[in-house]
Amino acid sequence: MSQSILIVNNVATNRIVLNVKLSAAQYTVHQAHSGAAALRVLRTNSIDMVLLDVDLPDMDGTRLCRNIRALPRSKNCLILAAMENEPLDKKKEIMAAGADDYLQKPVDDKILLARVRRLFRARAAETELQLRDGTAQALGFAEAAASFQGAAHISVVAGDRTARDDWRASLQEFSNHRLEGLSRCDALSQESPELAPDIFVISARDTEETFGLSLLTELRSNPNTRHSGIVVVLPYENHNLSAIALDMGADDLVYEGFDPAELSLRLNVLIDRKRQNDTLRQQVRTGLQAAVTDQLTGLFNRRYAMPHLKRIADRAKRTDQSFAVMILDLDHFKQVNDQYGHATGDKVLAEVAKRLRDNLRPFDMVARFGGEEFLIVMPDTPLHQAKQAAERIRKLIAKDPIEVPFQDSSIHVSTSIGVAVGSPPHRSTFDVQQLLNDADSALYDAKAEGRNQVTLARGAAA
Amino acid sequence: MSQSILIVNNVATNRIVLNVKLSAAQYTVHQAHSGAAALRVLRTNSIDMVLLDVDLPDMDGTRLCRNIRALPRSKNCLILAAMENEPLDKKKEIMAAGADDYLQKPVDDKILLARVRRLFRARAAETELQLRDGTAQALGFAEAAASFQGAAHISVVAGDRTARDDWRASLQEFSNHRLEGLSRCDALSQESPELAPDIFVISARDTEETFGLSLLTELRSNPNTRHSGIVVVLPYENHNLSAIALDMGADDLVYEGFDPAELSLRLNVLIDRKRQNDTLRQQVRTGLQAAVTDQLTGLFNRRYAMPHLKRIADRAKRTDQSFAVMILDLDHFKQVNDQYGHATGDKVLAEVAKRLRDNLRPFDMVARFGGEEFLIVMPDTPLHQAKQAAERIRKLIAKDPIEVPFQDSSIHVSTSIGVAVGSPPHRSTFDVQQLLNDADSALYDAKAEGRNQVTLARGAAA
Question: How many CB pairs under 8 A join A and B?
């Protein structure tokens, strides 16, 4: 399926010329001569991009953009608007109404196609980052996207200090963002993606490599700056070079002598997009971490614990070391839930988790294994040491009652702990499932013998 | 922090020239005149890429690559090898030893820098996809990466049918992969990323747009082909154009009259990388899904359920519709676990989850809320309908005992269900926490009154 583009243009010959160009580039092309005709096409077809010449007989471009965004089928399609050199307010208006980019007429074919590709490329990258609506909200980041509205960080990069200072000063007049001038060297020496500028405005006059676009390509290949927005300032209007710059990853471009007010408008568009994408990337990272974390306690979950246990067992086999597996279960936890309610039960679980985490070594693993059941895996730990550790854990949980907000009394809890150890002379004890079964049986014995105690797996004579 | 490159070259003047070029591009440069010196630098410095001229006094390139890979500090650094026009076996050998790319001497500066950028760009994209070691394994995909070794799908794209057929046939001689000839139009009409070719080998002779590189840029901006590997075949050797092609996203390039055996070697490198990246992307998708899924039952988890419930409540408020919230708890589930063991208990939970999922409407949500507790949210559902649904669910779980493998008998389970309904006349009932509390209290009543029954929240007179 090729990508589909709707040409909206009042002039038949313009439509024909565009159709030829876009069809040659293998896009599926639809056409409309008016705003109403465009909306008809959008209601019945799946359209990826609207190429909108705003000079229409029946509707102004801003209104059409709003109408496009109001249709469920086209609310996410891309809109590239072409217009005469209108006052800046008109441009702002159409961008606010939902256009993704605009060009000034007459539009050169090469640049038009390169802009189309740039929009499609950016959209494809964004789409990959999108989570299902539910997932994003479930991970609690839906609000974060909208909330951050502070000043952005924009760097103006040019070898010529005067140009750099002039551009910076003229942009600052129209902007509340933090603007700084940078040398090419400093631009390429960012410490981290978080500290890198949101946007680079870079001069293409400085070097001859790759037609003066080497800074663009270097910023794009640097892990700290690859997600920054980049606006290229070309020394003079050159359609070939403009298309190359866009295809090499420039997000936008202007020519020397640009109107700083207009560039500021374009910068704001890029800043919004950059922030949205930063949020999406953050959501992905958070989501992946959430996949292996128990939400209530912050411990690892069972999904993480099982393969981790397997890795520790494999490593112990290789290095001929013992390791310990403990299953720990809160005693009479159902009574806590029944007597104080689930919310209090959850607080107890969280506090027990905290005590466990604070009292184990950094390389021990503690996971929530089930409702009130925890798994502890201790690498490089022989039986007597495992027994001591389990005893210590049992005591520290039984000793201090757990304070619970809004309850008059604090709650005493105790734990039963089953301990199994995989140790080198008994190779069979390295079987992970067997170890878990052994620890589980030991836990069962601890429960049967009155709870609040540590029991070693049978056969593991201490 | 700029990226760091180690130049390994036996000839001092070569090192000096390279140093000037790379420093101008703002890389941090280290130098070594021999294999031993290179390893010393790698042991004590953090190096991102080694530019290795294999003509060394003390060590052949293959051995040095192996040694580099054996050092913990440099096992992941990039290696770009430069060599005379050696037999293909030599090239294979050095790639097998761990080089990421190789170039034939003499190496043009522009091309060298573009190759360096390409390697850095690819590495940065890969690194972003990497999950923490533990996360990847926890999600169960560590093995998947290595296992898939079938034939790859390679498309040769050229307007000239004869060239296309010749290239395809000559490549097929050296390859077990599935090779096909495609027109430019077919290349751009892929149905999905999964069905698109792993690799495109494209002729840059066909069009004049962007120096014949328009197909490259169009494939890169198309969501279905943006992750495919792309090798550009340039009509003749041209250093400028080569650098542009690499900076526009070509993964590799050759010139017409290429050696098909050598191109096959290069294709295999790209295929491996493509597959690794496909796996990484799949891991990310799976990981995100896992974050909202209960592993045991495949239902949504609590993390997903809560904001989803909130969304349904908000929507009900807007549309003035009722919606139902049920909390369902298995009766005496602890006895199942105690009597038959946790494994059997898990099977029971999974079967209950299946029955719930199979017997609700597609837009109802069912989630595992806690150990043996499930949450059901039914949009657009008034009280009497919710009551009927809950009664139906209760019956279908109590009716047929659950078959459990390796147990002589099947297990009878029953459920208690608490039901609360948010309905328009009572705006306060749209408070999500209140609804959950009401359903929970109703569940408690159902338990108190003997279990295996449905109870409506107090105040919700039917």
Answer: 180
